Every structure is written in C-alpha cells, then in structure tokens.
Amino acid sequence: MAANEDQEMELEALRSIYEGDGCFRELSPVSFQYRIGENGDPKAFLIEVSWPETYPQTAPVISMDAFFNNTISSAIKQSILDKLMVEVEANLGTAMTYTLFEYAKDNKESFMENQPVNTVTSVSNSISIGPPDVPANKKKDKKEQLSKTQKRKLADKTDHKGELPRGWNWVDVIKHVSIIKFSFNIKKICKQ
C-alpha cells in the first residue's frame, strides 16, 4: 500500500473511534490533537500529532507547544516527548496515532508525577465605598416571626404533624361547573 492509502485508512479509523469524544480534535486530515485529562485538571496536557507525507514509514511530528500546555514545565514536556518517541520507534511502519494517544492516557500519572500543581489566584483591585461587607458565614438567618393569632390559624389548618389535610386544595366540581355555565350564559346574553 502507498503511504496515502495508509493515511486515509488511519484517518477513517480515527474519525470512527473518536467520534463524539470531546478530547479529540482533527485540525486537518493530517494533524490531530488529543487532550489527556479532564478540563480543569491541573495535570492535563495536550498532544498534537502531525503526519509527514511518508507517514507511517517515517515518524510523525509530535508537539506539545499548544497554549493549553503553558503551565507544564519544559522538562516535563521534553520527558513526555521522549517517552512518546520510544513508542514511535517501536511502531514505525504501522498506523500509530491511536496507539500514541492511548499510551499517553495510560501513562498520564507517570508522565506528570514531577509536575507541581499550580493553583491560580486572582487579585482584585476593587474599592468599595460604604459599610464593609459582612462575610456570609457570620450573617445570621432571621426566622419569620409569627404572632399568636397567625400561629393559631396555622395550627387549625394543619394536623398534629404540621401537614395540610388531604384535599385541602381540591376544587368543588359542582360549583366549578355551575360557574362555567353562569359565565357561558352571560356571554350569550352579552352577544345578543
């Protein structure tokens, strides 16, 4: 098979395997990105694989230069690329993009074990005029104060468990039908 036929077959396989996967992104028919890890994971990273014209007989170009990887140290990036190149050498001559992505997913923890977890904190430069804000945990919730009469009426409506009796909001069908007939007769009279 020619290199282009191999690439077409692998492209079709990648599209069917990663259909609906939010981590996979096809940049072009010969360039792909895969996010290893979940969104918001501080140890997540993105791998970009590009195929040269003679791929799979020659090694693909693997890059970690995406903006997504800015928080990863260059030493960790180089370490990941070196480990992926070992896999490339082992699979040279065969379709290996899926294999590389799966290898990276399986070894994510070992790849990122030396990566420090950075927590981002935002600094606010706002000035407020007026009384200082009370923190939410110090603010006391006020209970609704009921008078004796209100409490008595509430107790009369509910049973000993504090629940309303069955059917408290039912509509009397006979009264409802007679009201509808009455309003219908009024409409008839108004039209005449």
UniProtKB/TrEMBL annotation:
Residues 122-161 are annotated as: Disordered. Residues 136-146 have a biased composition (Basic and acidic residues). SUPFAM superfamilies: UBC-like. Residues 9-111 form the RWD domain. It comes from the Eukaryota. It holds the Pfam family RWD. Transmembrane segments: none annotated. This is RWD domain containing 4.
